[in-house]
Amino acid sequence: MAARPIPLGNLLSAATRTLVARLDSGLADAGFDDLRAAHAPVLQAIDGEGSRMTDLADRAAMTKQAMRELVVHLQERGYVEVVRHPEDGRAKLVMLTGRGWRAIDAGVGIIDTFDGWLDGAIGQGEVQKLRVTLQRIIDHHAEERIPAR
């Protein structure tokens, strides 16, 4: 009997852990040792002029409570600030601080370096095929309208 292939979910998870380890290490080396890859969905979801907490939660596919906890964590470390919405005094906006923008820039550089490493490891053509395939999976999931939990 042939050995069962490694499930794709396991392979995707292992590949993600590789990226996360490189991102966490690179952020620490860049002076952001209190920031982790897990914070990326929050930081990436913030618009340049700030974003409402509910919008951030929706964009990151998180609960409002989980998003609030992450925002407080990032605020305490100086990456974001929470201010009153200029047009709706009841609402608050989450905005990146200078430190937050610098962390974003560092993260982009780390991701670019990872992409270059991946090109060298498996070849640019294979990386492009992987991108296309993963995007097809994402698009197919969106078409099925399976809600994220």
From TrEMBL:
Domain HTH marR-type residues, every copy: 5-139
Xref: Pfam families: MarR_2
Molecular function via GO: DNA-binding transcription factor activity
GO biological process: response to stress
Protein name: MarR family winged helix-turn-helix transcriptional regulator
Species for this entry: Solicola gregarius
